[in-house]
Backbone:
């Protein structure tokens, strides 16, 4: 059975004060001290990694079940073919009358038995062929950070937090701009044998296991296309929160970030895919956290996810939820206003 190596490539920074989420801080246009902004990012990073680990565990369980089902199906087919052959042998013996007929019947029985053996062998061969043509999916989590000196810092950050559900690979991305950093990290994953890459940032506490699972389901659809294609999930501000493609896809991030033609990230990716004649598969939008408006939006999402986790298969971003609560943001309320369409012609006053 052929192995298909799937990689989640998580781009992340070390949560250093004054260097991450500065737009949430008073250093830019935010309201929090720089150390608070860094702490929020730290919580989001760990939550996103935990969510990814849970999603990959689900995908691995599914891959194991599929492989076991394929093996059991091949075995059952072989057993059925053998039983059919044995029935033929028995019928040949029962139909024999007289010495000559008995001999003929015995010959038929032997032929039936031979047929049974051939059937069993054929079934075994068919099972082996199915296994040979089948795919066993494996999954790896790779965290890319920069500069290279931060790889060990990031590794220690995770080690100090305790045991994680799965091994994590740490790499460094380098380049003169954002595009080159992304391309360098992708190339390292291809060099490590990746067949599919699903990449994202660590500032998405509303990410769900279902988002990750569906991302790989869409990538696997592209594996059946000769030239591959891309998958992407938009964020809330004309950008992209998740992007990925297959090994066969001739694509890159070049020209996407800080596009000189004024395109934001989402239309820039679509523009590149269109020019290359590549299909693009849609993933549900996933908001990230850059600005204070993003922050308030995610407070409502994280609160809702925490509640829904009580009755749904969700891995809640509990660290981020706790950090929001400690800052006093258990909920977000908006002052009443009249910024809406006229309703006098449709609303009926209560008597």
Residues:
């Amino acid at each position: 059975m052929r192995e298909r190596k799937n990689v989640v490539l998580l781009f992340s920074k070390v949560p250093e004060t004054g260097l991450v989420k500065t737009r949430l801080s008073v250093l830019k246009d935010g309201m929090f001290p720089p150390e608070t902004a860094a702490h929020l990012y730290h919580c989001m990073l760990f939550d996103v990694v935990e969510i990814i680990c849970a999603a990959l565990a689900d995908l691995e369980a599914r891959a194991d079940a599929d492989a076991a089902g394929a093996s059991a199906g091949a075995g059952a087919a072989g057993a059925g073919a053998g039983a059919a052959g044995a029935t033929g042998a028995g019928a040949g013996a029962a139909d024999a009358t007289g010495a000559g007929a008995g001999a003929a019947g015995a010959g038929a029985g032997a032929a039936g038995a031979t047929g049974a053996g051939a059937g069993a062998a054929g079934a075994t061969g068919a099972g082996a062929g199915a296994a040979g043509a089948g795919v066993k999916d494996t999954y790896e989590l790779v965290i890319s950070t920069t500069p290279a000196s931060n790889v060990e810092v990031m590794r220690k950050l995770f080690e100090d937090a305790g045991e994680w559900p799965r091994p994590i690979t740490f790499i460094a991305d380098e380049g003169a701009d954002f595009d080159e950093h992304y391309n360098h990290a992708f190339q390292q994953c291809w060099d490590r044998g990746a067949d599919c890459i699903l990449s994202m940032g660590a500032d998405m506490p509303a990410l769900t296991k279902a988002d990750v699972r569906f991302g790989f389901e869409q990538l696997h659809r592209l594996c059946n296309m000769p030239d591959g294609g891309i998958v992407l999930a938009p964020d809330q501000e004309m950008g992209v929160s998740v992007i990925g493609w297959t090994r066969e896809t001739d694509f890159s991030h070049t020209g996407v970030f800080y596009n000189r033609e004024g395109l934001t990230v989402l239309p820039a990716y679509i523009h590149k895919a269109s020019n290359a004649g590549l299909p693009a598969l849609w993933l549900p939008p996933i908001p990230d956290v850059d600005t204070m408006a993003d922050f308030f939006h995610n407070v409502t999402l994280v609160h809702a996810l925490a509640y829904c986790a009580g009755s749904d298969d969700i891995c809640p971003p509990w660290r981020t939820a706790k950090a929001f609560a400690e800052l006093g943001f258990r909920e977000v309320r908006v002052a009443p206003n009249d910024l809406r369409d006229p309703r006098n012609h449709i609303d009926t006053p209560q008597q």
